[in-house]
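My main concern about presentation is that the manuscript never shows what a single data entry looks like. Each protein is reduced to its one-letter sequence and a matching series of backbone shape codes. For the editor and my fellow referees, an illustration may be useful. For illustration, here is how one protein appears when written out as sequence plus structure tokens:
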Amino acid sequence: MGAPKTRTVNKATPVHMIPKVWAQPRLLVVAPSRELAAQIHRVVTDLLEPFPELNCTLLIGGANHARQDESLKYRLPAVVVGTPGRIMDHATEGRLDLNKLKSVVLDEIDMLLKVSRQDHLRLLVNALPPPSRAQRVLVSATGQCCDEAEEFAAEQLRAPWRSIGPRNEVEMPPRVLHLANGAPDVDKKMRFLRRLSTSNPMPNGVLVFCNNFERARKVAESLRYNDIPAEVLSGNRSKESREKAIKNMESGKIDMLVATDVATRGLDFRDVTHVVNFELPPDANTYAHRAGRCGRMGRNGIVISLGGGGASNHRLQKYMSTLQVDILEANVQSGELCIQTHKLSKRVGAR
């Protein structure tokens, strides 16, 4: 085709439709959140350090699109880590060729299948090579997949596929102590957090879980009002705010990080010693995910659930049975975290 015709085609064709494939990775890792994708990218980059010819590129929403383009074009990554939407952006715009993939990992598959991400995930899966050409691995941190994940696996994996790990059990960190305090309302829960921040043993970092952003925001504001450095980690915050919160938690600039479940799924806070359920999780699986943020890599950890009353205690007792853990009563008195020797009873009062 001569130059005049080429120029005519270029004028008539949108730039994003012009084929210009730059990257043909062999491994694709898909994560449900930007923060988890960024963490995986750091780990993979460290693993590839002895192999300078192999590169890893991170593709997530909210990040500089042009820099991602440059990374795909000039680094020619063997591994791509990212979120479904941004991966599909680069694939449909012709900068990322998925046809050469040999393996695809879908991390935290139950979260990827949430309604808010399902459309992007379906588009991505349809663009992948068939299972006969590219191995597909579905990962769930607790070892227990939801029904939607089981159906997705049956639909997308090459038969016969197999599940590795405990099928009907949720694995818990072995060196984590599970406690409960019967604080019945927000004021008493906040008082417990204030006492905990200066208790013995001194927390190295506290991750406080709430069930929604608005509650998390108010808890963090109250902590800061009482001179306890705290920030919020939630999907409602901007990318910059979330990155700052994670960085400040990892560096020790804040004592408490108040978070929602989606924002922290899979994240590795190695130095966190305490997890506090300011609001009880809706199910045992969520409890396990929260508890898994401490006591990592064989370290000790403490999980404290706040809430009094029959319904709260009944729910915690169900978690004890499902997760096969003992939850002990506890309180902070005279600067000491005091633990009762008996298990959670049906009636726990605030102390």
Remarks:
- DSSP finds 13 helices and 13 strands in the chain.
- The longest strand covers residues 336-343.
- The CA atoms of residues 207 and 290 lie 9 Å apart.
